[in-house]
Design brief:
About 35% of the residues lie in helices and about 25% in strands. The chain has helices at about 15-25, 50-65, 100-115, 180-185, 185-200, and strands at about 5-10, 30-35, 70-80, 85-90, 120-130, 140-150, 165, 170-175. Strands 1, 2, 3, 4, 5, 6, 7 and 8 form an 8-stranded mixed beta sheet that branches.
Length: about 200
């Protein structure tokens, strides 16, 4: 009889992120789940790593309070545009205000970039992952992927700023890539590979 895969709860209410985590981790020995009762915690404005840790610790505590056990993973990610002084950065999901929609955020980014007059469209995506395991041990990684900002939105795939972020080796935005293509090269994929390696090293033999 095969051994049951350990549960891995994702600290997010973002359906796009949950799908990516399932694609990145679900086929690698983990049973990726969401916890319907997850209560989001306020995020800070200065550190991806701190925000990811805050979310992972919160969900871990919420699971314990509900009498449940499992490993927790949380991420905090953002887009950094060099000509905008690395904005929106940690505030990527709050860019333009808490009530702004994602199309409004993407439009604002293009408008602000145009207003700089800069020809530099260099950007990068950043992903910090934080895991709290069943024993309370913590694991953290940060990964990035470099690219540029398109002149206009391209592609219907992905979420957040994907339709604006051009991945130069493929000459396409993340929004134009298939899920499989994106999950092979993205910042979240790179962070997931690193955290998986860390978890494998720390798991009891």
């Amino acid at each position: 009889m095969s051994e049951a895969r350990p549960a891995l709860y994702v600290a997010t209410k973002n359906r796009g992120k949950l799908r990516e985590f399932d694609a990145l981790l679900g086929g690698r020995g983990w049973n990726v789940r969401e916890y319907d009762g997850y209560a989001e915690v306020p995020e800070g404005a200065s550190s991806y790593a701190d925000n990811a840790a805050r979310k992972a610790r919160a969900l871990s505590a919420q699971l314990r309070a509900a009498g449940m056990e499992g490993i927790v993973v949380a991420d905090d990610s953002g887009l950094e545009v060099r000509a905008l002084g690395r904005r929106p950065g940690v505030l990527s999901a709050r860019y333009g205000g808490p009530e702004a929609t994602w199309p409004e955020r993407r439009r604002l980014l293009l408008d602000e970039l145009a207003a700089t007059g800069s020809q530099d469209r260099t950007a990068r995506f950043v992903c910090a992952l934080h895991v709290v395991d069943e024993r309370g041990g913590e694991h953290a990684v940060v990964a990035t992927v470099d690219g540029t900002i398109a002149e206009a939105e391209r592609g219907e795939g992905g979420f957040s700023y994907d339709a604006l972020f051009v991945y130069p080796p493929l000459g396409k935005t993340f929004g134009e890539l298939t899920a499989e293509e994106k999950n092979a090269v993205s910042h979240r994929a790179r962070a997931a590979r690193a955290i998986l390696a860390d978890l494998r090293r720390s798991r009891p033999k």
